[in-house]
Write a structure and sequence with these properties.
Layout lengths: L6 H16 L2 H8 L9 H22 L4 H7 L1 H29 L6 H24 L8 H12 L5 H8 L1 H15 L1 H4 L2 H31 L3 E9 L2 E7 L13 E6 L9 E4 L9 E6 L3 H5 L9 E7 L11 E6 L4 H13 L5 E7 L8 H10 L3 E7 L12 H11 L5 E5 L2 H13 L7 E3 L5
Parallel strand pairs: 7-8, 7-10, 8-9, 10-11
Antiparallel strand pairs: 1-2, 2-5, 3-4, 3-6
Helix pairs in contact: 2-3, 3-5, 3-9, 3-11, 4-5, 5-6, 6-8, 6-9, 9-11
Bound molecules: flavin-adenine dinucleotide.
């Protein structure tokens, strides 16, 4: 039987989702207790939208601070997506707040009103830039938007690292809104409101400051340095980092971390990479495909450079003994399976496992030998390499016919599938596996797009 999520975990998810969605109720109670009858008035509607917007905005900032508990419960990519939805809701509510306040009468000369409007303008600009340039969304199916995005990216004025720095301005926007909220007469006249709203904004800003500064200092003190850099194939490099005492990271196989190498060779930006080594190894290894300026520069990274490693994160972690499993990897999306299968090689295979790995050329299947050897040593492990752009045996595609044959080994009722690779592979593999009878809960993936 496919394992159910533990009860405590399911309850934790429901609880924290409830907190995120209903937390505006507490501050709203502080403003409206005894006055709910006035809610239809434009002043009260403005207040309602403003309070809900502020709390939702603060919650969105907390989610961006990589809180380990939320990562464990929901998965990193889903937490980040939810953070985006909360931010969008906060903006809509903030505009509603301004509109209702304008209907009632907006006093533009007052300092706290100016702070609020400046915050909203800043927040809206950052959100628009994020939506247009940083994340993939269905909005980009609109041709004019897609063309504008392509033009701006081509000019390279908006590389991802700069965009990320710009995104930090949301913390400044929250600081400005906090000033706005605390100095507004409706808040200042009541101690409970001052306390609740002040604590909410301060807690969110503190979480963000810890994430940006405190966590970086802790990572620096871990003392990781680059121990080895070696090519692993066309545009592929493997980097090993190590710290005194040979202690790696306490990660589960399949997790990733944010890496920052303090070298002028690549700049100091932080990028996410999956940990390809197994837990317990003396070094932490990653394999990187050169896809842009940063990843291309890593091949020239000298050894001895200080490395900061924030993590581990992610729930792409199949548990040994809960299979059978079908692993589907595209290109560099093999990295989580390297860690998982290395760990099971040592511990022993407790499940039937099929790995199908596709790449354009044989040279890109950089760990082919390791998996072929694994298949010889473990009868329950089956390795299926698929090359898409070279003639010879193993040439083809990961299509429904192939997946149908692989699913047939263990049957769709018991199988758990894990998919990692480019977006188009992920989408097609999920669709095929669902059509082949795997329930939604049995198909796992984690986005490789940050
Ligand atoms: C959870 C996760 C695990 C990953 N594991 C691996 C791995 O094991 N091996 C591997 O080669 N790649 C991995 N990636 C992808 C890798 O992070 C990107 O290829 C790399 O950051 C691209 O940087 P670039 O500047 O060279 O390319 P660019 O051309 O500048 O960027 C290409 C795309 O990568 C993303 N990206 C760029 N910079 C950043 C950044 N600072 N932070 C977050 N995303 C960024 C953006 O979506 C961008 O559109 C992983 C990504 C994620 C989210």
């Amino acid at each position: 039987m496919r394992p159910e999520r533990p009860r405590a975990e399911r309850l934790g998810r429901v609880f924290w989702l409830g907190v995120a969605l209903f937390s505006p109720a507490l501050p709203l109670h502080a403003y409206f207790a005894g006055n709910w009858y006035s809610i239809g008035h434009s002043y009260s509607l403005g207040m309602f939208a403003g309070v809900a917007s502020y709390v939702t905005f603060a919650n969105a900032l907390v989610l961006s601070a990589r809180v380990p508990l939320f990562d464990r419960l929901f998965g990193h990519d889903r937490v980040m997506a939810f953070h985006g939805y909360l931010a969008a809701a906060a903006i809509v509510l903030a505009f509603a707040h301004v509109v209702f306040k304008a209907v009632f009468g907006l006093h533009l000369g007052m300092g706290h009103v100016q702070a609020g409007l400046a915050a909203l303008a800043l927040f809206a600009i950052v959100a628009a830039v994020t939506l247009l340039l940083m994340i993939e969304s269905s909005l980009h199916r609109l041709r004019p938007l897609a063309a504008l995005r392509a033009r701006l990216i081509r000019r390279r004025a908006f590389d991802y690292t700069r965009l990320k720095r710009f995104h930090n301005l949301t913390a400044l926007a929250l600081a400005l809104v906090t000033v706005h909220v605390l100095r507004a007469a409706a808040t200042a006249e009541n101690r409970l409101r001052l306390g609740v709203m002040g604590a909410w904004g301060t807690a969110a800003l503190a979480a963000y400051a810890y994430h940006k500064a405190g966590r970086a200092i802790r990572r620096y003190r871990q003392g990781f340095t680059v121990a080895d850099v070696r090519p692993r194939g066309p545009a592929l490099v493997e980097i090993a980092i190590r710290r005194p005492g040979d202690a790696g990271l306490p990660h589960r196989p399949g997790q990733f971390a944010y890496f920052r190498f303090l070298s002028p060779v690549c700049g100091r930006a932080e990028h996410p990479f999956t940990i390809a080594s197994a837990p317990g190894e003396s070094s932490v290894r990653i394999v990187v495909k050169a896809l842009g300026d940063y990843t291309a520069a890593l091949a020239a990274l000298p050894t001895g450079v200080r490395a900061l490693c924030d993590g581990p994160y992610g729930r792409f972690t199949p548990a040994r003994g809960t299979g059978p499993f079908l692993f589907v990897a595209g290109g560099i999306g093999i990295t989580p399976f390297l860690s998982i299968l290395s760990a099971w090689d040592t511990a022993g295979f407790a499940d039937s496992v099929t790995l199908v790995w596709t790449a354009r050329t044989r040279a890109e299947l950089f760990a082919d030998g390791f998996f072929a050897d694994l298949a010889k040593r473990h009868a329950t492990f089956c390795y299926v390499p698929v090359v898409t752009r070279e003639a010879g045996s193993g040439t083809g595609r990961i299509d429904r016919a192939l997946l149908g044959r692989l699913v047939g080994r263990d049957g769709p009722a018991r199988l758990s599938a894990y998919i990692c690779g480019p977006e188009n592979l992920r989408q097609s593999a999920v669709a095929h596996l669902r059509a082949l009878g795997l329930p939604r809960a049995a198909v796992h993936f984690e986005s490789f797009n940050a």
